[in-house]
Recover the amino acids of this structure.
């Protein structure tokens, strides 16, 4: 909640890390970085460092969990004990269970689940370092890991949050802004289909502020989508170069 004593935006309108309100943190994305997963991706978004790995589609195990008409998508979001300032217990927390569920639900509409009945696709997300907005960065990386695994998809899913700090709507909140700010609105988008697959809100916003935050988050998603495509292309350029050698 808002702590009026500490300003999160200075007189020049810049944030604690020097960003303008509508600016994303620096983002670096790499695809196909793990040799033993079917698909993988790594994202750095500001101080966030997150790995996503995909296995499948493969025969569902245990069998009674399989679905007769589609694949079962499973997702585990996990924070490493060293990923946050105060050591996190490696055991799954309530928050990690919730995030695993919302990340899975944000990715499901992008996959042709019906192509692989009685199978499962597993997504493993390891947060190595966290600094706010990890659910969104995880969605961005996991969607690329699915594409890298060759799973037929309608679109990539890119995610980004917007929120309110010091009465200003800002893009891509880092941890301090998330904790000390007034609200946080994570959004996931399939850009080509113009379809939102995740919309959450933590905190309080007026209707006008909410609309502004969602629109800003959508702009962030579109910028991240462009970076996702670049990262996928880079993977295939590497394959091409390797084939020449
Ligand atoms: N966090 C933490 N310890 C925890 C869980 C979270 O320090 O056990 C921090 C971490 O930096 C995370 C931030 O709190 O990114 C915000 O967490 P939230 O639940 O809002 O999810 P996120 O913004 O990461 O999607």
């Amino acid at each position: 909640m808002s702590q009026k004593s500490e300003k999160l935006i200075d007189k020049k309108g810049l944030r604690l890390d020097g960003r303008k309100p509508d600016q994303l943190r620096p983002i670096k994305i790499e695809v196909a970085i793990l040799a033993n997963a079917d698909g993988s991706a790594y994202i750095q978004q500001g101080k966030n460092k997150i790995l996503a790995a995909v296995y499948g589609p493969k025969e569902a195990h245990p069998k009674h969990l399989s679905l007769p008409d589609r694949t079962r998508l499973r997702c585990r979001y996990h924070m490493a004990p060293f990923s946050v300032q105060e050591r996190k217990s490696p055991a799954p927390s309530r928050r990690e269970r919730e995030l695993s569920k919302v990340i899975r639900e944000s990715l499901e509409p992008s996959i042709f689940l019906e192509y692989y009945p009685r199978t499962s696709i597993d997504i493993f997300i390891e947060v190595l370092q966290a600094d706010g907005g990890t659910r969104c960065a995880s969605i961005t990386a996991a969607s690329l890991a699915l594409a890298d695994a060759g799973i037929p998809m309608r679109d990539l899913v890119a995610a980004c949050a917007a929120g309110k700090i010091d009465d200003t709507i800002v893009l891509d909140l880092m941890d301090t802004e998330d904790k000390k700010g007034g609200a946080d609105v994570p959004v996931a988008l399939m850009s080509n289909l113009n379809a939102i697959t995740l919309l959450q809100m933590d905190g309080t916003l007026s209707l006008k502020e909410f609309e502004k935050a969602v629109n800003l988050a959508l702009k962030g998603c579109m910028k991240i989508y462009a970076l996702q495509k670049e990262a996928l292309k880079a993977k295939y350029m590497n394959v091409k170069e390797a084939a020449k050698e």
Remarks:
- The first helix runs from residue 94 to 107.
- The mean pLDDT is 95.
- The two ends are 56 Å apart (CA to CA).
